[in-house]
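Batch 3, record 17
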Amino acid sequence: MPQPALPQLHPLLRTLTLGLVCLLAACNRAGDPVYRDQFFAFGTLIDLTFHGVDTPRAEQASRALEQTFRQMHSDWHAWQPGALQQANAGLAEHGQASVDPAMAALIQEANRLSTLSNGLFNPVIGRLVALWGFHNDEPPQGPPPAADRIRQLVEQVPASTDVRVDDGQIHSRNPAVRYDLGAFAKGYAIDRGIEQLKELGILHAIINAGGDLRAIGRHGNRPWRIGIRDPRKPGVLASIEPAGDESVFTSGDYERFYEHEGRRYHHIIDPRSGYPAGATVSATVIHPVAATADAAATALFVAGPDAWPAIARQMGVKYVMLVDREGRIHLNPAMQARLKFESEPEAIVMSEAL
Amino acid sequence: MQIQTTAEDQRIAWLAALAITIHILESAFPSPLPGIKPGLANVITIVVLVQFGWRSAAWVSLLRVLCGSLLLGTFLTPTFLLSLGGAVCSIAILWLACRLPGRGFGPVGFSLLAALAHMTGQFTIAWLLFIPHPALWRLFPVLLTAALLFGTVGGIIAGGISNRQRQCST
Amino acid sequence: MMTRADRVLMAIVLCALPLLYLHIWTDQEPATMLRMQVADMDATVTPLTPDRHVQLAGPIGESIIEIRAGQARFLDSPCPGKVCVHSGWLREAGQLAACLPNRISIQLLGSRPRFDAINF
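Prediction for the assembled complex:
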């Protein structure tokens, strides 16, 4: 007698259902092994995200990182007493100053990237930045500085090539040189922070310092997901998944600015004119090293919608997105392949491959 | 000049003609949601598969897409590409499904597989070629639900036709 | 008229389809909690319901956080620039806002944030 089909099928169906229920439960389990912590340093909020690290170890790492960042911040501060201010005072008085090895390395790296950027990223225009009033935690109120004072400072052409670093000493042949490592120190510090995390055995993490970040490893079984904020309206413009170890940096005119008589004056000064660079709204760069990404984002912002590909090539940057004043999005093809736009952009200007 | 035709060729031609007719009739009715159609022409493919095998079914299906689009004037348009992508996917999955050992699938199983594969193929092409927007994926489960519904109903109809045909021929 | 293979297939499809809905439609889970941190103190995590105002005392004064309809924002803060207030509503899990002068940060939390970090 043939067996009826249904009773035979039941155990199979039961196993199947059970398996699916387990799968459902696994998908839905509350929370994931992510640890987050935040602290204030470098005049901004440092946001840490670790994946797959148990809480005591994560807390320990977070405390250690906070200390490192605080130390670097006070050493390299552009306008508060610290090692950098001492160095600037030395440069002003004698054209030279002694620096510790950490500071020498930072300055050397800044100089190297400045040269690669044709001076568009210029770490020695401290006097210009101070004149514009951005040596302050709060944006200034305006009015903008007088035109002849700006011209005076620009005509002195302070450049990183004026500076020589050797044997714990920096020498400048240009009396106008003052270091302002502002944003660059932040990128450089993120790199040191990531090194420290790796030494502590934390291999899946994001250090996000006020919107500029470096991500290593993954979020469990998927890559990290980074949203790039729209420079002009609330919400996210596009997203990207960092591959293994990458930094995502954006320089934008909305970060620090003030408005005076209907005009916006922001903190990214074009060293050639002495005025805030006018053609760009934001420049986003992806690069493995945070310091390079940081300097490149500034340099490409200043370079603007026409000149950026040449500078990017010189600096070895492979992924760039630039939003110009008209809202057009400038991309290189490799960047387009990696970006996922939240909504189809109205106008894309594609550059040649970098 | 005369082209030699076998009995199978003629059978395929007849069945394809029938499928094309249904295909065109179906396209005359407006669809409530883009991408969702009852897929009655799919019923013919399944009947052919059950009665004459995969080769005939593949011919009927591809001829339907090709001739249907020529008659409707959509040849090489997006509609045609979508329809072709769906057909190729469903034929491919049916080829695999025919190779299942034992008693294997019946008309309902074949029809369901074909409908799901058709939808997936069509959707993938739509996503790759026309609307590569992540939000499109939100529609995907809805479309598959429709495919599940129409695939099952189509399979039951195909099973009914096959049984009656078998009764007639004996 | 259905074979055994048909039935198994049907069962798999019927089980998998809800999973697919779940997977694709819950990609973006709404935020459920708000994390608030003042200076170096431990963060507090509070649910996003009911709607209310939360006062946080920072080094330079009191910042007011408004929680409404699953969203949160700085309603007022004693800082001169009011950057935190101008940064507006936080809507998605993972988003954060901070008042640097008053050293207060707020962040929406959810079990499945769409982004792990926001670049700007």
